[in-house]
Amino acid sequence: MAVDAPPDAAAAIAAGRTSLGIELGSTRIKACLVGPDGTPLAAGGHAWENDYVDGLWTYSLEAVWAGLQACVAELLADVETRYGTRLETVGALGVSAMMHGYLAFDADGELLVPFRTWRNTTTERAATELTERFGHNVPLRWSVAHLYQAVLDEEPHVPRIASITTLAGYVHRALTGRHVLGVGDASGVFPIDAATRGYDARMLAQLDELVADRAPGLRVADLLPEVLPAGQEAGRLTDAGAALLDPSGTLRAGAPLCPPEGDAGTGMVATASVAPRTGNVSVGTSIFAMVVLEDALTRVHTEIDLVTTPAGDPVAMVHCNNGASELGAWAQVFGELVGALGHDVDPDAVFGALLRSALDGDADGGGLLAYNYLAGEPVTGLAEGRPLVVRTPGSRLTLANFARTQVYGAFGTLSLGMQVLADEGVRVDTLFAHGGLFRTAGVAQRLLAAALDVPVAVGRTAGEGGAWGIALLAAYLEAAPHQDLATWLREHVLAGADLDEVAPDADDVAGFRAFLERYRAGLAVERAAVEAL
User: Do the beta carbons of residue 517 and residue 267 sit within 8 Å?
Assistant: First the structure.
């Protein structure tokens, strides 16, 4: 739901003085229209889910465009309902999506193999070899790991590859004809050189040497999208692109697009966390924390991704494959129980009630233990996952303890990764949190502050998430010649922002530490479950 709009919103829409952001998340495609001051004016959305096909997580390209069109149609209808005017053009447009993964195309633009998402963990050999060769952590989900694994496996499509990109890059190219990526999204494709803010030339040469025997003639640099920083125009919406987004013909071509970004970058922008000692946490199907670095890390950590802000500044990222999905699954079960008792209750109300009950639980969760591992979790060294709830005969099984433990379980792996950064001396003053989990006021925010032992701030737009972030990056195109991104966000987004900051509660912190000790020890149970089931 968009926040309260200014009185001149209709005039801004009619005059095209708005910016449109679209983000393809893991469970929802969202569109956010913002006014000249960045205020959300209207929204659209479409629910979708990944498919598990032949042992790989994927989304079909047909589902991408059907979802985008449904999302944009809902946005257009929302504009007309709210303001009595049609959205025919925008001042700027941006597309973001889940980072990483593998979309490989031939010279005619045909997809060679189904889209392999970030959720796939079949690239262990490639990621390990590249990390050792580069002296730079290459996580399993990075695009270059998928590409190199395909080479190692001698997949028949490899000789035909003409380009690879991310989901955001694919959609952007369809809308504009340009094969580009924002530097933040590109930093999850291939390592970025901090000096040039482009792909690292030394590592590109090393990869060409690695693939020379298995894939003669394959030059990786020729496959990758051009890298662009925030604020640089990345093409314009073509007639064909406009028709792809809106087959009704209401939305016209011509709007400039900002560089396509990943969901990590849009999370940083949505929370104005692009300057050193700032950071943010995004919670969805996956969960990740981003901290902008003051200094380089002293050594390679396989738990830590080194990526960049949309402006190209270095960022340490703790990415956990598993986020709030398991908590949502339990909320659905409780909703079915309520329905079986003859009550018709909104699913969001059930989810909110379950979350709020967590505040009444024991500080350590009553001795319960939960793992939310629907997929593998590289941070803890698991190639596959098995969701678990474990308790001892002496634990206290109550709804409140169950709910608190599920939330703690969602933050457990993140806490382990953030401890690595703390041991490196990385400091953060405040973490800004965003994502649907924070729409239930005061619960996940308080427990996250306990898990990471750092103040956590949530704004009114926490639920808007990355769609708002990419809309802001689109709006930044006009300001970029005059202000750097951090300054613009500080003055444009944070100035006067309605923020709620929660400091860690000492009892909660102690309780989470006790939970985390069980969590570390219980990883042996999780590993045994993967082997046995």
Answer: no
